[in-house]
Task: structure prediction
Amino acid sequence: MTEQVEKPAAAPGRKWLFALLPLAVVVVIALFLYRGLSLEPRTIPSALINKPVPTFDLPPIDGRAQPGLASTDLNAGEVSLVNVFASWCVACRVEHPLLMEMAEAGEVPVHGLNYKDEPGAALGWLRRFGDPYARVGSDRDGRVGIDWGVYGVPETFVISGDGQIVCKHIGPIMPHDLDNKIMPAVEAARAGRPVAC
Amino acid sequence: MSGPRPLSTCTPGLRAPRFARGDALVLIAVIFAALLLGFPAFALDKPLDDPALEARAIELNKELRCLVCQNQAISESNAPLAADLRQVVRDRIAAGDSDQQVMNYLVERYGDWVLLDPPFKLNTWALWLGPALLLVIGGVGVRVWVRRQSGRNDTAQTALSADEQARLTRLLEQDGQR
Result:
C-alpha cells in the first residue's frame, strides 16, 4: 500500500507539466502559423541572385528609336535596373508613374524587357503613359523572359556594374519597395557592398 | 396519357413536362458530347514529331511545377507560361538533352521551386525527415504512456493486504445478502 501511495505522490509536479503540454503545442502551432501565413507564397525566390545576367540580345520594339537590349549593355560598369513589362499587364500601370519619376530624376538607368507583347500595343502604351526606359528589348516569344526566370509581370531586377543580378522585385514597385529594397540595393551595388535583398 | 386522369391539384398549364425515355437518352448524349468539347491544356501545343521524344516530354511536364498556378504541374495548367515551358521542354529534348539536363535547365532559371519532387538538401531536410521525426516522437510518446498505464495496472494487480482482503470479503457478503 505504501508503495502505491508514493507513486502518485511523485506525480503532481509532472502533472503540471502534462497540463501545460497542450498549451505548449498550441504555442508551437501558433508560431508556425504566424510565420507561415505571413509568408507570400506567390513570391518565388529567384535562382539567379548573384549570378551574371543571362546571355541575350533582343531587338528594339518595332518603331522605337532607341536600340534594343543585350546582356553586354548590362555589364558596362553602371548599376542599372531591368524592368519586365507588357502593355497587357495591368499591375505595370500601377508602378509606371514611379518609373517615370525615376527616369526624370535620372538616379539610375532603367531598361525595359517588353515581355510577350505586340510592338504596336507596346508603343501605344509607352506613348500613352510615358517612356521611362533607356533601352527596351522586345521579347515577343518570352524565351528571354524564361532565361531570366520571369513568371509574373511586372518584375524588376537590380543589375550591378559588372552584370550580376543582385536583387529581384516581383510585382509592381510601390514607393516603400523603392525606398526600402531597390534603392538600398542600387546603392550597395554601387559601393561594391554585398546586397541584402 | 391513357386510363383515368389522376387526381391532381395542379393546374394543367403548370404540369411538369414529361420526358419519354428516348428524350432522356438524347439529353445524356448531348451532355456527354458537350463534355467531349472540353479539351486538355496541351491540346494547343505542337507535339514533337517523334512519338518517343514526345512521350518523354509529357512525362517531364508532369514533374515540373507551374509557377503561375502553383501546385499544378505544367502538364495540366492552362497558364500561358506553362505552355511556354512545355515548349521549352520539347525544344530541349529535341536538342538532345537528357531528362536530367532538361530539369537542370529549368532549375537554373527558376530554382528547385519548379520541381514537384524537391531534392534532399540542407534547406529541405525538415521537409523530408520531419514526418518520420514526428512519427518517432509520437511512437516514443505512445510507448511511454502505454508503459505507464500498464505499470499502474500491475500495482493494482498485486496481492491485497490483510485489511483490503477483509474489506472485500465484507463487501461481497453484503452484496450476497442483498
